[in-house]
Amino acid sequence: MTTLRGTALAILLLTSAIAVADQRASTVEVIGAVLDDFHEAAAQGDKSRYLDHLTRNAVFMGTDEWERWPKHPQFTDYVDSRFTDGKGWSYRSVKRHVSVAETSDVAWFDEVVFSESSGRFRGTGVLVLESGTWKIAHYALSFLVFNEDWDAVVELTEKTRATKARE
Asked: From CA 92, how far away is CA 111, in angstroms rounded?
């Protein structure tokens, strides 16, 4: 009888573990679709769809050192000025990793995105589950720099910073 209970318990635990893994995989797919649609909305210049992917108090970190844009009003105003002709910017994810917290209501990701006009960037961020919908609370976009180019990039950045300081 003890062996039967032990076997039943093992089967129950295994079944539960498989169900949790399936749910986590499904959640990762849903989050991937949210991020893909976020990028697609930008490419189409669809302001409301793009901004709807962000939480009310989201922050977007751009590539310049001063670019820290809270959704309201700075990032909303910026998006409004860029999406006026039905076009925004185009980034397509070419590699993405998503992790989901054990509480299943927070996720974080990193992705390499590609732009036809500017090449490869890294996007990183955090999503939260709000009323059954995954929303981006934080997105940071950064340039990818080859380690071999690091010294040249540092030198260029120092020159630009010095020029801006004189202005």
From this structure: 10
Maximum C-alpha span of the chain: 84
For residue 150, give the amino acid letter: W
> Residue 37 in contact with residue 46, Cβ under 8 Å?
no
Closest CA to 47 of 83, 73, 92, 89: 83
Q: Global pTM?
A: 0.82
Residue whose pair of structure tokens reads 């797919």 in the numeric block = 29
What distance in Å separates the CA atoms of residue 55 and residue 127, rounded to the nearest whole number? 9
**Residue 74 DSSP class:** I
Name residues whose C-beta falls within 8 Å of residue 24's C-beta, 6 or more positions apart in sequence. 100, 104
Compute the distance between CA of residue 127 and CA of residue 105 in angstroms, rounded to an integer.
8
Cα–Cα–Cα angle for 83, 135, 84, rounded to 5 degrees: 5
Write out pLDDT tens, residues 103-156: 999 999 999 999 999 999 999 999 999 999 999 999 999 999 999 999 999 999
Nearby residues of 91 by Cβ (< 8 Å), 6 or more positions away: 39, 42, 43, 113, 114, 115, 121, 123, 141
Distance CA 136, CA 53 (A): 6
Contact present, 132 and 114 (Cβ < 8 Å): no
